[in-house]
Write a structure and sequence with these properties.
Elements (H helix, E strand, L loop, with lengths): L4 E2 L6 E2 L2 H9 L8 H11 L4 E5 L6 E4 H17 L7 E4 L5 H13 L2 E4 L6 H11 L3 E5 L1 E2 L2 E2 H11 L5 E5 L7 E2 L19 E6 L9 E5 H15 L6 E4 L6 H5 L2 H8 L2 E4 L5 H11 L3 E4 L1 H10 L12 E5 L5 H5 L1 H5 L2 E8 L2 E5 L6 H6 L3 E2 L5 E5 L12 E6 L11 H7 L6 E9 L5 E6 L3 E4 L2 E4 H9 L4 E11 L3 E10 L8 H10 L10 E4 L13 H7 L15
Parallel strand pairs: 3-15, 5-6, 5-7, 7-10, 10-11, 14-15, 14-16, 16-17, 17-18, 28-29
Antiparallel strand pairs: 1-2, 3-4, 8-9, 12-13, 18-19, 19-20, 21-22, 22-23, 23-24, 25-26, 27-28
The chain binds 5'-O-[(R)-(benzoyloxy)(hydroxy)phosphoryl]adenosine (OOB).
The site of 5'-O-[(R)-(benzoyloxy)(hydroxy)phosphoryl]adenosine has 22 residues, from helix 8, strand 18, strand 23 and strand 24.
């Protein structure tokens, strides 16, 4: 019997009653909402600085009181435009103060932010807007030379539900400036409760289209509170958002929302490179931040010769992809701070090494779960539990791990067990101390320095090329990113020969995020097969010659 209960709207399965009761009784779910949370922090310390946005001109510093007021005013303006409870709003903002003004306004009225990344392009954004029936889309005017207003114009043409595009900063063009929306606060008709959804987050995914992750106020706030305790975040902490603000790691592990929960200060870094981050660490006295492994490497290389004072940095969180033991050992000598490895997922479960773990544990494991109620199973291909310490598939269930994706019943049947465990797709082992070591991955995904790429999604785009007969996308090792993407392509008989660059260009022109464009394209006659005649991605991966990249790949950027 499937014990997972569908919600009233049957949009996604949620925790069965007895689990919800248990999580409440244990004190994990405390009946909090984001709207209230900000209100309470603003009442307790209105003049403390909440958000520092040095990238804006002039640089902005918003206190808790100001953020709270702004969220109220924007909420009123959104309500006046007919955006209300349950509406979906695709938010595609970089690391700017408006990101927080927008999401807290939406949290307050119970409209759901759908968190897009600045790297997403037409194909992804159109899909998010169409699939969620989004009522509004929030963008910057432009970023890194890319004009988001042009992108929005195309999306609006294709998606009839999209009634509003709001532009944060710069010339709004044919759309409305976000700064023109705020209005005198009014009573919010039907504010969301703690069990209601707060937002839809994106999954890294392994399927043709990304899946959406429904997170409630109560479950997400528990993950913040738990993270804060483990990472020692309190009101004197200063968290630097170096990765894209909307990603689950810098958002909640402990991230900007954890910092705001603690009444701490959030500093927004426009770029994650040392040149942008180090001066901010010195100027704001940053105490902790989170990075993906390639950036952590870059920082440890740059720090010893940097003229900036980085001594305020107490904790560097590294996660999103496997951090090699060798690189992990370099963090303390280079940055003189404690490394905390984070193995998390937008679906829920987050593991941290603890600040007081011994060095060997910190450098060789990916941590242990936040909650005593996080259930961890390590199983074989048939879902049989393996003996302690054995390597196998990680399944998990717990107070902040979803029971199903949003509007994806068929996929849910594969990604969750009958009794509600999420199949993470990660291959792990658990040490005697309960720490998890990530050994590999069973899902058909490439983890490109923390950026997740679903092989199937890229394959589908390559297959759309008229000269292509078949395509397989696999990971190959990269000395800097950990993994990069290689597309093996079979051309149609008699088709004009193609150059690798033409395939890359074709994928890019289909309006995909740049990080999904294959790093390497190789033409082959046949694909290796398994004993039963299926294509063997394992053999394709092994066939990868993985030459050194000719040019250094660009680091993942917001
Ligand atoms: C984080 O979240 P997502 O949703 O982008 O990706 C989750 C997947 C995991 O299932 C795993 O395959 C991989 O990313 N991953 C790691 C890892 N951290 C994440 N693999 C090896 N070692 C690690 N430390 O990536 C995420 C969410 C919250 C906090 C941190 C990362």
């Amino acid at each position: 019997m499937n014990t997972t209960t569908p919600t009233a709207e049957h949009e996604h399965p949620t925790w069965p009653k007895e689990f919800a009761a248990r999580y409440r009784a244990a004190g994990w779910w405390r009946g909090e909402t984001f709207g209230q949370m900000l209100r309470e922090r603003a009442a307790a310390h209105p003049d403390r600085v909440a958000i520092v946005d040095p990238g804006s001109n002039p640089g902005r510093r918003w206190t808790y009181g100001e953020l709270d007021r702004r969220a109220d005013h924007l909420a009123a303006g959104l309500l006046a435009r007919g955006i209300g409870k349950g509406d979906k709003v695709v938010v595609q903002l970089p690391n700017v103060a408006e990101f927080f003004e927008t999401v807290f306004a939406l949290f307050r009225i119970g409209a759901l932010p759908v968190f897009a990344l600045p790297a997403h392009r037409l194909t992804e954004i159109r899909y998010f807007c169409e699939f969620t029936g989004a009522a509004a889309y929030v963008i910057p005017a432009e970023l890194g030379g890319f004009d988001f207003r042009g992108l929005a114009a195309k999306v609006v043409e294709d998606v009839p539900t999209l009634r509003h595009v709001f532009v944060a900063g710069g010339d709004p063009g044919p759309f409305e400036a976000l700064s023109a929306v705020p209005a005198e606060p009014t009573a919010i008709p039907d504010p969301p409760g703690p069990a209601d959804l707060a937002f839809l987050q994106l999954s890294g995914g392994s399927t043709g289209v990304p899946k959406l992750i429904p997170r409630t106020h109560d479950d997400y706030i528990y993950s913040l509170r738990g993270s804060n305790e483990i990472c020692a975040v309190d009101e004197d902490s200063v968290y630097l958002v170096a990765l894209p603000a909307a990603h689950n790691f810098p958002l909640s592990s402990p991230g900007s929302l954890g910092a705001l929960y603690a009444g701490a200060r959030v500093v927004l870094c426009p770029q994650p490179n040392p040149e942008a981050a180090f001066p901010l660490i010195e100027a704001e006295g940053v105490t902790l931040t989170g990075l993906v492994p390639p950036l952590a490497l870059l920082w440890t290389e740059a720090a010893p010769t940097s003229s900036y004072d980085l001594s305020s940095l107490e904790v560097l969180l590294v996660g999103g992809a496997k951090f090699s033991e060798e690189a992990a050992r370099r963090v303390r000598p280079a940055l003189d701070c404690t490394l905390q490895q984070v193995f998390g997922m937008a679906e829920g479960l987050v593991n941290y090494t603890r600040l007081d773990d011994d060095t060997e544990t910190i450098v060789t494991t990916q941590g242990r779960p936040i909650s005593p109620d996080d259930e961890i199973r390590v199983v074989d291909d048939e879902d049989n539990d393996l003996p302690d310490g054995a390597t196998g598939h990680l399944l998990t269930r717990g107070p902040y791990t979803i029971r199903g994706y949003w509007k994806a019943p068929e996929h849910n049947a594969r990604s969750f067990t009958e009794d509600g465990f999420y199949r993470t797709g990660d291959v792990v082992r658990v040490t005697g101390s309960g720490h998890i070591v990530v050994e590999g991955r069973a899902k058909d995904q490439i983890n490109r320095g923390g950026e997740k790429i679903a092989a199937e999604e890229v394959e589908n785009h390559i297959l759309a090329h008229p000269a292509v007969h078949d395509a397989n996308v696999v990971a190959e090792p990269d000395p800097y990113l950990g993994e990069r993407t290689c597309a093996y392509v079979i051309l149609r008989a008699g088709a004009e020969p193609l150059k690798p660059l033409a395939v890359k260009k074709f994928v890019r022109q289909r309006g995909l995020a740049a990080y999904k464009v294959p790093d390497r394209v190789e033409f082959v006659e046949v694909f290796p097969q398994t004993g039963v005649g299926k294509i063997s991605k394992k053999d394709l991966r092994a066939a990868s010659t993985a030459p050194e990249p000719t040019t250094p790949p660009t680091p993942p950027a917001p």
